[in-house]
Amino acid sequence: MSVCVFIAGKSAACLAGLLFSLSWTHSIEKTKWIEHWQVQNEQLVLQETFVKGSGAGIDPAPTAVLDNGWYRWKPLQAVELSSLSLANSELTPDNWMLCALDSVTRETGECIDFAKFEDRGVESFTIKPCP
Fold first, then answer.
1. H or E segment at 22?
2. How much is the pTM?
3. Which are the contacts of 10, defined by CB distance < 8 A and separation ≥ 6?
């Protein structure tokens, strides 16, 4: 199984594996945000969230732990989605980054930097599992 980025309904890039991270910088607070997702039963399942600080629109969960400047928490209820829809925003200082994660060490592997799609005038992306 893998996870793929779709633009206008067509596959634009894919990463092999069942575990991946999605990261970006919050448009107002300029704070780094990372989510770990797993592909299970053709669904995207949120595993854990990491946020570097807090502020407007960034409210760590009540169960969040502050670890080396990062708030870290797991969802209280399962978050399972068939796909994730993302907007391309000029307000964020960097682009979306989708990276494969090692299932044991959680170290980052191959990544897709959404900056590679800038020259296409893309306004939105969809991420979903692919066989």
1. strand 19-25
2. 0.89
3. none
Distance of alpha carbon 128 from alpha carbon 131, whole angstroms: 10
Identify the burial level of 88 via C-beta atoms within 10 angstroms of its C-beta, where 0-12 means exposed, 13-18 middle and 19 or more buried: middle
% of the chain residues with pLDDT over 90: 56
Q: Where are the domains of the chain?
A: 19-82+91-120
Q: Does residue 120 sit in helix, strand or coil?
A: helix
State yes or no: pLDDT of 93 exceeds 60. Answer: no
As a whole number of angstroms, the distance between CA 99 and CA 107 comes to 10
Question: Whose structure tokens read 């092999």?
Answer: 16
Q: CA–CA separation, 28 vs 72, rounded Å?
A: 20
Q: Which two tokens stand for residue 115?
A: 């900056």
Per-residue pLDDT tens digits for 9-54: 899 999 999 999 999 887 666 788 899 999 999 999 999 999 987 7
In this structure, are residues 10 and 3 in contact, taking their beta carbons and an 8 Å threshold? no
